[in-house]
Automatic annotation (TrEMBL):
Top-level lineage group: Eukaryota
Organism, scientific name: Nesidiocoris tenuis
Transmembrane segments annotated in the record for this chain: 12-29
Coiled-coil region list: none
Name by which UniProt lists this protein: Adipocyte plasma membrane-associated protein
């Protein structure tokens, strides 16, 4: 009896292994399964927190302004000595000492002539999917970035599994080429802001074993991206048949960057870091940190009226810290 039980167990286990292997192979090697990125292997070797990256308490004790009144104040701009922020829901707010003043709401239906970006016109054979940020040149021209030509914001996590690009040259001898601008950052970079004659890049999350290991495993990244895509498709089809708020939320969350936020709370240090770079060479010249958990998930930083204001795509508050004079 015992021998028969063990024999059946071995057969069942072997059959399960074969079935799982077939499914994994189909997901990895089926030629038409999305997303069809380049999945190259590359390595990330974060620099030690020494020298210009040495931990400090410059951002410790950050104030949390408008907590519970705003979601995802991700991008900050100072214009005519007034501070503005974007937020979830499409609002642009002016930040005053006492309140967030709604200025405009983007994301409404617009005719093409009313839009900054024509999302229906292909650029070099691809439609813009995730217009992200703009910068106005000295001559008045507007440059805008498109973070993805394959996925929209609610699927932005999928793009992380592809291969990175780097700094792209608009003009000069290297026009049309891209290269690595800075290496060894001790976290995942997000927005770039100007800080005097330097560039400040904020690390939206410190590196974890997962974020340093996955780049070296292209097939694992490919499997995760395709599995999430299929899961989202299944949830979407079920929701088409049996529409519920729960299914709609699940469809929205699968592949969204916010999937990472709950995980980050448990696998990463509660730390915020912004790094200062030489704008031409990318050399790291300094950094500021919050090590007390008063602010996390920082994606950008601007200085306004003697304060560092700290943006975030996740936080439900706008953080600031008084600039410490040295």
């Amino acid at each position: 009896m015992c021998f028969r039980f063990l024999s059946n167990l071995v057969k069942s286990s072997a059959a399960a292994v074969v079935a799982i292997s077939i499914v994994v192979a189909a997901i990895l090697y089926h030629p038409s399964l999305p997303p069809n990125f380049e999945y190259d292997a590359y390595s990330l070797e974060p620099l030690p927190l020494l020298g210009p990256l040495k931990l400090n308490q410059e951002l410790n004790g950050a104030e949390r302004l408008f907590e519970g009144e705003v979601k995802g104040p991700e991008h900050l701009v100072v214009h005519n000595n007034e501070l503005y922020t974007s937020a979830h829901g499409g609002y642009i707010f002016k930040v005053t000492s006492k309140s967030l003043v709604p200025i405009v709401k983007v994301g409404q239906s617009c005719e093409t002539l009313d839009s900054i970006v024509d999302v229906d016109t292909e650029i070099e054979g691809k439609k813009p999917m995730l217009p992200n940020s703009i910068s106005v040149a000295k001559d008045g021209r507007i440059f805008w970035t498109d973070s993805s030509t394959t996925h929209k914001l609610n699927d932005g996590l999928m793009t992380v599994f592809g291969s990175p690009n780097g700094r792209y040259y608009l003009k000069g001898k290297k026009a049309g080429r891209h290269e690595v601008f800075v290496e060894g950052l001790p976290g995942i970079p997000d927005n770039l802001n100007r800080y005097g004659e330097q560039i400040v890049v904020c690390l939206v999350a410190p590196h974890s074993p997962m974020s340093t290991l996955l780049p070296e495993l292209p097939n694992v990244r490919k499997f995760l991206a395709r599995t999430l895509t299929m899961a989202q498709w299944v949830v979407g089809e079920i929701n088409n048949l049996y529409q519920t708020t729960l299914l709609e939320r699940a469809y929205h969350m699968i592949g969204h960057f916010e999937m990472l936020h709950p995980i980050q709370k448990y696998v990463e240090e509660p730390r915020a870091t912004c790094v200062f770079l030489d704008e031409s060479s990318g050399k790291i010249t300094g950094s500021v940190h919050a090590t007390d958990g008063s602010v996390v998930g920082v994606s950008g930083m601007v200085v306004h009226n003697g304060y560092f204001y700290l943006a975030s795509p996740f936080n439900e508050y706008l953080a600031r810290r008084k600039v410490i004079a040295h």
